[in-house]
Amino acid sequence: MAGEEIVQKENKILRKVAKEVAIEDIGSRKVKTIIRRMVKALDSQEDGVAIAAPQIGENLRIFVISKKLFKMMSEEKIKNKENSEKEYEDMVFINPEIIKTSKEKMLTEEGCLSIRWLYGKVKRPQKTLVRAYDENGKPFTMGGSGLLSQAFQHEIDHLNGILFTDKATNLREMKPENKNEQKIIMKLVFFGGSQFSVYVLDELKACSILPELIITTSDKPKGRKLALTPTPVKIWAQENKIEVIDPKSLKKDNADLVSKLKINDYGLFLVASYGKIIPQEILDIPPKGTLNVHPSLLPKLRGASPIKSAILQENETGVSIMLLDAEMDHGPILTEEKIISWENNNPPYERGLAEMLGRKGGQILAQIIPKWLEGKIKVKKQNHDQATFCGKIEKEDGEINLGDSPEKNLRKIRAYHQWPVAFCFFERNGKKIRVNVKSARIEDKKLILEKVIPEGKKEMSFADFMRGQR
C-alpha cells in the first residue's frame, strides 16, 4: 500500500535539512520517479493535501501540493456547479524558498502524514510568497493565503528538518473514526463573554473541538479602583493558547474584523452568551451559518437574562441550539433538551444552573456539529406566537420585600445570588442598614434567611446578625 511508504516521526530523515536538486537533474528519470512516488503516497491518504520528499525517505528539496487542496479552496470561494466540475492538477515545487510573508498571522489546526492522528494549533503568517522550479525546470513564483499559505510553510519546514509539533500548542490525538470532527475543528470561530461561555468551551475542548479564533467583549472596570478586568472567555482563551480578540464594538469600525473573518475561510461560527448583537454582515460570513447555545427552551425566555428569569418565573428549563438570524433569539432550532425541573418552593441557585446548562449545551453542540456540517439536521421554525422575553437585570431589581410571598423572595435570592444580589433593609439605632441575602430556604411556608452580608461587614449567619441587632 502506497501509504505505507510515508515515513513516520521516528525516521531520522525527517530531522535532516534536505539537499537542493541540481538544476540539470530536474526533469531526469530519477526525479520524475520520486515525484510520482510522492503523488501516489499523497493520493493514498484521503486527508492528505501536501507532502515533502523526506516523507517518502528522499532527502531532496521537493514538495507537492495535491489537487485536492486547490479543489477545496475553489469550492469554498466559488459555490456553483460549473466551477465544482473543473479539473485540478497537483503542483510540484522543486528547491522552493519563501521570499515574503505577511505580518498578519493566523492560528490554525495542523496535522501531518508523518505524525499520524496528532493535531495541534500552529501560528503562521496569513500570506506567503514562494519561488521554486516546476517538474520541467521552469522557475515560477506563487503566492498563497489561508490554507495554501499554511501548506507552503508546513512543507518547507519539512525540508528544513522541522516538524509541526515543534511549533504547535494544544497537541491532541484524533483517531480516524473522528475524521469528520477534525475537518470541522479547523475552521471554527467562537463568540462568548461570560462564565456560561466557558462551560460551553470546556465541553467542546473535552470532545477535541476547539475554535481557531475566539471573539469576546472588551475588558471592563471592576472593583473600587475600577481596574480593567478581562472576561472569563478571554482568560480561558489565553490559558488554552487560542487567538482571542476583544473589539469594543462589532457595529462600528469593524472593517478589519470582517476582512479577517472572510479571508480565513471560517466554515462555522458558534455563539454562547456573547452579550452583544452580532451584525448580519458578520452572520453571513460562514457558509454553514452561526449556531447559538441558548439557555432556555425557546421560544420561552428570549433575551438578555434567561437563566435568572427561569429561576424567577419558571419551574423547568433547558438548552436550545439555534441558527442565528437578524432578530434576537428568533432563528430556527436545531435541537433542544429539557435539563432540569424543580418544585415551586425549591428553585436552583443561579451559579449551579448556569454551569449545568452551559456544560450540557456544550455537550449537545459537540454532538450535532458534525451532523450539521454534513447536512443531516433539519431546522424547525419557532412558534413566535408563544415567545416570551426577559430584559436586562438592573441593580435595584435585587431588592426584596420580606412581606412578599416566601416563594417570590426565595426565587429572587437564588436568581440574583451572583449579581445584583438580593437585599433588604433593617433598622438599627434608628438607621437603615442594607443587608445582602446570600442564602435562604422555605420552612413551614415561611422564608428562613440563612446567610447574609450586612453593610460594611463580612458574611455571617442571619441568626448572628439578629443577635447583634439586640
The gist of it:
The protein has 470 residues and is of the alpha+beta class. 28% of the residues lie in helices and 27% in strands. α6 crosses α11 and α10 runs antiparallel to α12.
Topology:
Layout: H1 29-43, E1 50-52, E2 62-65, H2 67-77, H3 81-84, E3 91-101, E4 105-110, E5 118-125, E6 127-133, E7 139-145, H4 147-159, E8 169-173, H5 179-185, E9 188-192, H6 195-206, E10 213-215, E11 220-222, E12 227-229, H7 232-239, E13 243-245, H8 255-263, E14 268-272, H9 280-283, E15 290-294, E16 302-303, H10 306-313, E17 316-323, E18 333-341, H11 350-373, E19 389-390, H12 406-415, E20 423-428, E21 431-443, E22 446-454, E23 460-461, H13 462-469
Parallel strand pairs: 9-10, 9-14, 10-13, 14-15, 16-19
Antiparallel strand pairs: 1-2, 2-3, 3-6, 4-5, 5-8, 6-7, 11-12, 15-17, 17-18, 20-21, 21-22, 22-23
Helix pairs in contact: 6-11, 10-12
